[in-house]
Design brief:
single chain, 634 residues, mainly beta, 4 helices, 41 strands, disordered N terminus
């Protein structure tokens, strides 16, 4: 289990260090599952490192009019450096058979590399006016934010070797060193909300105008081991979004006795995005920054004996999977229908309806229904290929009682690109609605109870049932593959039970406890199939093989439906005993906490790469923990 962190306070030049042993899961580079210590990055935040500054102002102009304003700044300046465990000449290895990344680091789930620096700065302001007249309340104001993200990163070595059970089968090349500059020009909002109380009905209405504008300044990339030096012109309006988002809610006292209330609301929200799209559109990221190729280590010297700058098959290496790697031709372009305009930003609608009822004095219940549906999905279309350019094949599932049905059967509906089209990439990102319907919908029901009992006892808790259904079958323009495109998981995957209570004891003591029963973590089986296991069904070698006589290409296939496999549910009880003491003008409150009282060892993460030990746990719930603390008020 390579999971943990540590803190190292040293001199002002290196006051903080974090050893981030990262769990990747199946979506990580080459489907690696776990990183060893030498394959991580350590973060070093020199003074002043990260800080937050803020100032607020409020002024009650009259007994009905309130003025508020504020300003804030957040800066995060972080250096990423080679960990102490890594060798300066270490090579990163992703073993897709073992589900392990070791030896060094190339690039992680985000932009963090072996050595580099990331600076994020965000400024924000706000001004709000509130007018209250008892039965009527109105609030209006605006917020404004701007900022930047700059990155300068350098890997230990710009090639990662891909092994299968310690045998070389491929490699990944990246464009490094990597620099980029992203600027947020405006993240603004103007809003107004109004609340009216008319007898037993209270209405809440609101409208919010959201404006988001980012840009990329002119940038230059130095020459790398595989690419020439590049110069990029500035790009504006990446994106330039505008949207009006309504808010509407109502509460009704059903019987006029303030014991039963029906509440409904429907609201529209835009998806949060500071500089995420700006980074994706940035020309330094739009060009092909990475590619893979097969590698047949004929002489077993663990060195790729080939010309890595050539996109063609040569020596021990197959052709590049992305023929645009090393060129200034963008691999991915974003159309204006996702970059600019009104209501093109991804968004969601949230509907809720709840009933609050006082069952008896000091006991109330709330039952609520919640629905969230998403809109404005994006789809990526590779204009260089079409669904007709793919050939179908099947694989035989491994035999394992954890695989639904026990395994051993054939899984079809998998496709491989025709060799004549291999390496051709010309991606366009546009609105998914151009190709068909896509949906993502959450439906849930919450039941909660709140009770007061005895001489100051409190008890609150409930259960939440939910399910998120996803269907993207109609928006896969490049490939005919539709495997697991319509997913409706069981309700148990999103069912939560929580209970919390407290009670005062004699001698100034108080006892409290929290119990939670949460869904077990989801996992899947990612099986690595060799070319020899696929060729008989496909009728040819995998396209990544090129014309190689001996092909080392593999295909990692997720053979279980997402959401179909889950570990045991997490059951955890935490308790606290506290006492309040008064000493002169001081109030002292010592406390004794026990976390995970029953010492549960629930699995929190597993290695999704299928092997003899699948699904091997990589992280467990922390053991029973005792804590002594004290609060002092004066």
């Amino acid at each position: 289990m390579w999971e943990g962190h540590s803190q190292d306070y040293r001199s002002n030049s290196q006051p903080y260090k974090c050893d981030c042993y990262i769990f990747l899961g199946a979506t990580g580079l080459n489907a690696a599952a776990v990183r060893t210590p030498e394959a991580t990055s350590h973060s070093n935040a020199p003074w002043p490192g990260s800080f937050v500054r803020q100032a607020t102002w409020s002024f009650p102009a009259t007994n009905r009019l309130l003025l508020e304003a504020g300003w804030g700044q957040r800066r995060q300046d972080t250096f990423y450096e080679r960990p102490d465990e890594a060798s300066p000449t270490g090579r990163s290895v992703a073993d897709i058979g073992l589900g392990l990344e070791y030896g060094g680091k190339i690039n992680g789930p985000n932009w963090l590399l072996e050595q580099g620096r990331g600076i994020q700065v965000r400024h924000s302001t706000r001004f709000v006016v509130s007018y209250v007249t008892g039965a009527h309340q109105v609030k209006a104001g605006f917020t404004k934010a701007w900022g930047s993200i700059t990155i300068n990163a350098q890997p230990n070595f710009p090639v990662q070797f891909t092994f299968r059970n310690r045998a070389p089968i491929g490699l990944t090349q990246i464009k490094a060193p990597h620099t980029e500059d992203n600027r947020l020009r405006a993240q603004d909002a103007i809003f107004v909300q109004d609340q009216w109380t008319l007898r037993r009905l209270t209405l809440n209405t609101g409208l919010r105008f959201d404006y988001h504008n980012a840009y990329n300044p002119s940038q230059a990339l130095p020459a790398t081991a595989f690419t020439n030096a590049f110069q990029f012109d500035p790009r504006d309006n990446v994106p330039n979004w505008k949207a009006l988002n309504p808010r509407l809610g109502a509460a009704y006292d059903l019987f006029g006795d303030a014991r039963s209330a029906l509440k409904v609301s429907i609201n529209r929200y835009v998806v949060s995005d500071s500089l995420t799209l700006s980074q994706a559109v940035n020309p330094v990221n739009a060009i092909a920054s990475t590619t893979t190729r097969t590698w047949n280590d004929l002489n077993s010297n663990y060195v790729p004996d080939c010309d890595l700058r050539s996109p063609l098959q040569n020596g021990e290496c197959g052709p590049m999977a992305n023929q645009r790697f090393g060129t200034q031709i963008p691999t991915t372009q974003y159309l204006d229908d996702v970059l600019t305009g009104w209501h093109v930003r991804p968004s969601n609608w949230q509907l809720s309806a709840s009933l609050q009822q006082e069952l008896r004095p000091n006991l109330s219940m709330t039952a609520g229904y919640f629905r969230t549906w998403h809109r404005r999905f994006r789809a990526t279309d590779n204009l260089a290929v079409a669904p007709s350019d793919f050939d179908q094949f099947c694989v035989v599932l491994p035999t394992n009682p954890r695989i639904p049905g026990g395994g051993g059967n054939e899984l079809c509906g998998l496709y491989d690109l025709n060799p004549s089209r291999f390496g051709q990439v010309n991606n366009v990102v546009t609105q998914a609605s151009k190709f068909g319907e896509q949906s993502q919908t959450y439906n849930g029901v919450d039941l909660t109870l709140n009770a007061r009992f005895g001489a100051g006892g409190l008890l609150a808790g409930g259960v939440s049932f939910g399910r998120t259904s996803v269907d993207d079958c109609g928006v896969r323009p490049d490939s005919p593959e539709r495997l697991f495109c319509d997913r409706t998981p069981p309700w148990t995957n999103e069912t939560y039970v929580k209970l919390a209570g407290s009670y005062p004891l004699p001698w100034g003591l108080s006892a409290s406890a929290t119990f939670q029963n949460l869904p077990g973590i989801l996992y899947q089986a990612n099986v690595v199939y060799t070319n020899s296991q696929i060729a008989s069904s496909l009728g040819r070698n995998l396209s990544a093989c090129g014309t190689a006589v001996t092909c080392t290409a593999t295909r990692t296939v997720t053979v279980t439906e997402p959401g179909s496999l889950a570990e045991d549910r997490l059951k955890q009880l935490d308790v606290r005993l506290a006492k309040t003491l008064r000493i002169g003008g001081l109030r002292l409150k010592p406390a004794f906490d026990v976390y995970n009282l029953f010492n549960a060892s629930t699995i929190l993460r597993v290695n999704n790469t299928y092997s003899a030990r699948w699904p091997q746990p990589t992280d467990l719930l922390g053991g029973r923990l005792f804590k002594l603390s004290a609060d002092i008020d004066f």
